[in-house]
User: What shape does this take?
Amino acid sequence: MPLRRILYVHHGKGIGGAPLSLLYLIRGLDRSRYEPTVLCIHESEAAELFRREGIETIVDARLHDFSHTNVLWYPWWQLPKLLLRAWQWPWTLFRARGLLRGGAWDAVHLNTSTLTAFGFAAQAEGLRVIWHIREPLHPGYLGLRRALIRRAIYRCADLVLPICRHDAAQLRPSPRIHVVYNFIDFAQFDAALDGGGIREALGIAADAPVVLMLGGINPIKGTREFVAAALEVLRQFPAAVFLVAGAVPDDGFRNRISGQRVYRDIVRSLIPETMSASIRFLGVRNDIPNLLAASDILCFPSTVPHFARPVIEASAMGVPVVASDLGGPQELVRDGETGLLVPAGDAAALAAGIARLLGDPERATAMGRAGILFAREHFDAARNTAEVLRLYDRLFEEDRKSTRLNSSHVSQ
Assistant: This one.
């Protein structure tokens, strides 16, 4: 097979599930067959992540995405931003076509559903389009924007890669859709890691129960429900420590108008001063495997359905999970075997699930062991990357067959 050059387009700024998953995929490429370039639409931590790996990375801040997902969409009170994004869309299409013109790449791999302008641009320039779907589309008010995104994916994509069945079910049915679960690197998320150093650094006793939430202070992550549950559990297990790792909204203008600052203040106001040592906000961390190693339980109390990378990371490290019973976690947790599923938005049920595991360490340990086996079966980076590459090979083999067929017709 000739060398295929693939442009990977990434939309986000921070280090999260989407850039990490893309990084793992690119690491697994056979460079004798596939040559990667990453295009970021922001100069950001994500761009630096790819550069540090020695991956050719370009940044063009004149390009924009159009988000309409459960993580980010534009409700009525963000009408000016919605209109701005709508105005930027045709300009992004125009600029993307100019960038893709000239044969520098054979295919474009889009790392999110929000990159519709790139999908149309790549199709118009005759490139193969591979489209990763990493988030549920937001229903919106009338469903118009969701319908348009669905249509764009159906029309432009030669290969669609939802990261779970829940994300696949929101799309228009097509034989081009292949579910490949998000994956992790077991060399990094290693169940043999010792969390003693983290506990010592944070001043947590070696025998204190630790419950971890990854996601910062964010309503869709369920931080308020986590804190409310923590207060309830601490009545029964006063030595427990609850940790929240992830971004804490600052007082910036964007957080003021979006309500994130108000939500932050509500969450903090729930915690009595006497409990401040038991419920802690750690901010953004780059040592998640070590935090998991120091934890007894991982909570994922999301309030909207979406894929839960913290859940598969915890399972890989043998940490039992208590998660919301929603699309995404429902596929990642075997209820009663690798963790517990509880009703979303129900702090009392979340507290009961946490207390259930803290009160039965043997069962929690058994769930952790089962989680490792489940994670290795479904979320191994090497295995799932191999599946993506198999789909790549099939896609480009179809190109070769088509070329040979066309050549045969011409010669006749």
